[in-house]
Amino acid sequence: MKHEFQNGDKIALRNGEEAKVVEKLGEGGQGAVYKVKIGIKEYALKWYHIGVIPNIKKFYKNLENNIAKGSPSDAFLWPLHLTEQAGGSFGYVMELRPDNYKEFSEFLLARVRFASLSAAVNASLNITNGFRELHRRGFSYQDLNDGNFFIDPLNGNVLICDNDNVAPYGENLGIAGKARYMAPEVVRNKKKPDVMTDRFSLTVVLFRLLFLDHPLEGKRVVESPCLTEELELKYYGKDPIFIYDKDDDSNRPVRGVHPNALRFWPLYPKFIREKFEFALSKDAMHGKIARPTDNDWQIAFTELRSSIVTCPCGGETFLDLSGDSLCVCCGMKIPKPPVLSLQGRYKVALFPEMKLYKCHTDRDSDDYKEIAGEVIRNPKQPTIWGLRNLSDTIWNVEYKDGTSKILSKGEVAVVTKIKQIQFPNGVGTVI
Amino acid sequence: MPNIYDGAVEVARRTMTLFFVVDASGSMDGSKMGTLNAAVEEVIPEIRKISGENADAAIKIAVLEFSSGARWITPAPMDAEDFTWSFLDADGLTDLGEACKALNEKLSRKAFMSDAAGSFAPAIFLLSDGEPTDDYKPELEKLKQNNWFRKAIKVAVAIGDDANRDVLGEFTGNKEAVLTVHTPEALAKMIRFVSVTASQIGSKSTGVGKGGVDEAANKQDEMVQKLGAVQETDIDDGDLEW
Amino acid sequence: MVKDDFFETESGFKALNFSCTGASHIKNNTVCQDASASLNTKWYSAAVVCDGHGGEDYFRSDRGSKMAVDAFCSCVTDKAFVKRFDKIESESELPDLISQLIKSIIFRWNTAVESDLNADPITEDEMQGISDKSRNRYDLGENLQAIYGTTLIGFVCGKRRCFGVQIGDGKCVVANQCEQMLQPIPWDDTCFLNVTTSLSDENAYEEFRYWYAQNLDRDFPIAVFLGTDGIDDSFAGDEKLHDFYKLILNNLAKSKTMQPLEELREYLPTLSLQGSNDDISFGIIFDPNGL
Q: Cβ of A227 and C100 within 8 Å?
């Protein structure tokens, strides 16, 4: 049963304020979303349909907790205020989602495209980090799928929504999750969704962000013109096979049906492909080995981001840090640039426009957003590249010829001369 | 035993439309227009013959004249068999933009290409002797977005030295599809050659399908190749009399 | 023909198909590039028409169109599919079912092409007449599937549900309960003049279009006509094409026998000769009791 609010209706909030309905924005299976005004500011308000929540009391209390705890990071569209219960139902208030954010499912249907490779990789990084923060605060998402998050195609900024199903680790609100994103053990009904299963869903989301096609849907899944429940259970639960499984090629992508996987998979650097091969290996899917953690993915995508460069032809391509690379757009050879190995954890190519982030220069930081340095071309002699310190800290650069240079903010060291850099809390070595 | 469908069904042959886009501005007055009129009138029977003998397609003709403004002489493309050339008079400016607009309007399923089910790409033959007098660029840009125009075989004839060959090259999309004539004989010869060749190439059935092979581009290329072989050879400056 | 037979059907519909070689192909001694099939079962009647691209660059498209027909038929006769189709409760289940069907058709077709290429590699003889553009791609082993390129239009009419799928040109015309003649499968504007999307395309799945009846009182067909472009290119516009199909239905209604369809089969070569000159494939699914 649904309750339809009219424009101008007033909804009472728990904190004593009032939300005035401006217009209806949309509707889903669980409830409807309205644009409301509280005071002079506009917000979004979700109101649940009656009868869709399995355990109202538990759900309401959980929402209350989440609101009190606050959002894990700015990547979340988090509940802000609860409404009073009315007519057998209730709702909550959250920020409005800006127009430039598009639903992930639009990307999958190719109605929206990322403006660049960097944007796609940034989106992966942002989602991964969002979930890392969520899990660190003790929550699990439980219903991750292509409808819950929104991405700005220009830069990969992410807004994770539908956070009403988020619950503390160990607790389950009774929502099962969406097929094709559920972990195999959940599909088989052996387990209820939690952090471990979130990781599987995250892996599927990350794969689809980069390759669009679903990682478990290849030859095998399109053999039969009809996916019976039995087959679904087999392909997503009992016997899932990654389309690029290292040893088993029985589920490879099909020409004409999965053009994106076929096209994009070979373009990406080996290390990220190996990560997916590992995360979606039969052992990982069956729980025989541990799935990569959020942090593993965050490091991997930070690394991936550091291998994207702009070829002189104008197109973006990946650098293979172990040798020369070929531009995926124009085919031109790009010789191996100097590579800075940081904290034994990250490798960054010292190529023009490459950025160093705080997580690179500070061994105790995992801040992948704050820029600490960048590689630039000398304006008068563009073949000479320099590394500029953009942070507020002092760097001590050791050159190959034995000399050294103190780099404060704004100063530049010639890339080809660098042997090692001492940061206040970290070291980078050119390899 | 007679078949119940024989005669009961209105079958249509596939059509190829040949467009004559004619500059009838004041500068064409006199022997230029006279020659053009005579040349086209003479070539029509040859086109009729091709249409009749051609199993692949029927040929239709449409004529657009432009001077001050643009006018369709044919309210709808006419079967070559039924078409007779009405002599055009020369007077006024050279509104090429108006001509592009008119073409764009009629190059549509709702207008002249309504027999589209089964049509071949049209052939567009532009004849002009001067500079456009209106702001033709915006209309030409719009025309270039028109699918029929893009697929069409396009040829232009620049009559005399005052014709702006660059503009004509913009229209055809290919400098080699712009021919220049200086004498009445050359004009007549070119009109015959282009009309006949375009009708032949345009109405020929060749391969189908996407897969990267664009058939219409081949037809334009074919036309250009044939034109290359027939460029005017006897230019005698001193002999020019228009 | 015995009159009683006419009204008897297993599924409520009767389906028939014809293919004939085009006048221009007869003249050049080229083999027919079209293929078609029809199925009558107790759950549904179905028909499919496929038009191989022909021309020097697509020199095995006669095989391709047959493979497409086979792929469609093997998919719609698959036991699991039939069972599922019969049990559908609401139209909202159809999009998923149709999407999976399309993927499977593309898969089976590509598999058949691969087998054929392995069993019978391309010879230099076959590559004789191809354009330079195609030669460059085929030599690199790129897009060899295009050689078998074909369009496909398939339609299935069950007791309470029906749907059609299409890639490429050709027309599917539905005569519905309100006596309207419509072309419900969305048109793809990339199919223009003689350029068409193809089962051999790399993103064939994205290019497929489909339709299913939603408002059964209004949209459900009395008859469905499938035709490759050899038919619609013989008519000056959709109206004339629909008139032709109306004529066929009227003849069927009047005679209450299959005779008008027999005569149609004989007429098709004439249609090609006077009209498009192209190969023609025709499929019809109709409800004899609804005419």
A: yes
Confirm whether B7 is domain-assigned: no
The CATH number assigned to the domain holding B139 equals 3.40.50.410
Q: Domain residue spans in chain A?
A: 10-94, 102-297, 338-430
List pLDDT tens digits, range A57-72: 888 888 898 899 889 8
Place of tokens 């004509």: B168
| Chains touching B (3+ CB pairs < 8 Å) | C
Interface contact flag, A259 C81, Cβ < 8 Å:
no
Mean pLDDT (whole number) for C98-107: 97
Asked if the C-beta of A29 comes within 8 angstroms of chain C's C-beta atoms, the answer is no
Helices (H), A280-324: 282-285, 294-305
Q: Where are the beta strands (DSSP E) in A185-328?
A: 308-310, 316-318, 325-326
Q: What is the pTM of this model?
A: 0.84
Concatenate the DSSP letters of all residues of B41-94 into one string: HHHHHHHHHHHHH-SS-EEEEEEEEEESEEEESSSS-EEGGG--PPPPP--S--
Cα–Cα distance, A355 to C222 (Å, whole number): 66
Q: So what's the ipTM on this one?
A: 0.89
Is there a contact between C277 and C24 (Cβ–Cβ < 8 Å)?
yes
Report the residue count for chain A. 431
- Give the B:C interface size as CB pairs under 8 Å: 136
Q: What is the pLDDT of residue C1?
A: 47
To the question of domain A102-297 being in CATH 1.10.1660.10, the answer is no
B213 touches chain C (CB under 8 A): yes
The pair phi, psi for residue B11, each rounded to 5°, is: -85, 145
Q: Which domain holds residue B23?
A: 15-206+215-230
Specify the CATH number of the domain A10-94: 3.30.200.20
| A226: contact with C, CB 8 A cutoff | yes
Residue B1 inside a domain? The answer is no
Per the structure, the count of domains in chain B is: 1
C183-196 pLDDT, tens digit each: 999 999 888 877 88
Asked if B208 has any chain C CB less than 8 Å from its own CB, the reply is: yes
Position B22 confidence tier, pLDDT thresholds 50, 70, 90: very high
**How confident is the prediction for chain A on average, in pLDDT?**
89
CB-based burial label for C108 (10 Å; 0-12, 13-18, 19+): buried
Q: Which chains touch A (3 or more CB pairs under 8 A)?
A: C
Do A225 and C81 count as a contact with CB atoms less than 8 A apart? yes
Query: Which of A228, A257, A262 is nearest residue C103 as measured by Cβ atoms?
Result: A257
Contact A223 C104 (CB under 8 A): yes
Single-letter amino acid code for the residue at A127:
I
Residue B20 pLDDT class (50, 70, 90 cuts): very high
Domain of C88: which CATH number? 3.60.40.10
- Chain A: give the shortest CA distance to residue C29, in Å: 32
User: What residue of B is the nearest CA neighbor of C240?
Assistant: B10
Q: What is the pLDDT of residues A258-310, one digit of tens each?
A: 999 999 999 899 899 999 999 999 999 998 888 899 999 999 999 999 989 98
pLDDT score, position B162? 79
Residue pair A200/A183 in contact (Cβ under 8 Å)? The answer is: yes
Shortest CA distance to A356 belongs to which of A393, A398, A387?
A387
Domain-embedded: residue B240 = no
Closest CB to C195: pick one of B10, B115, B214.
Answer: B214
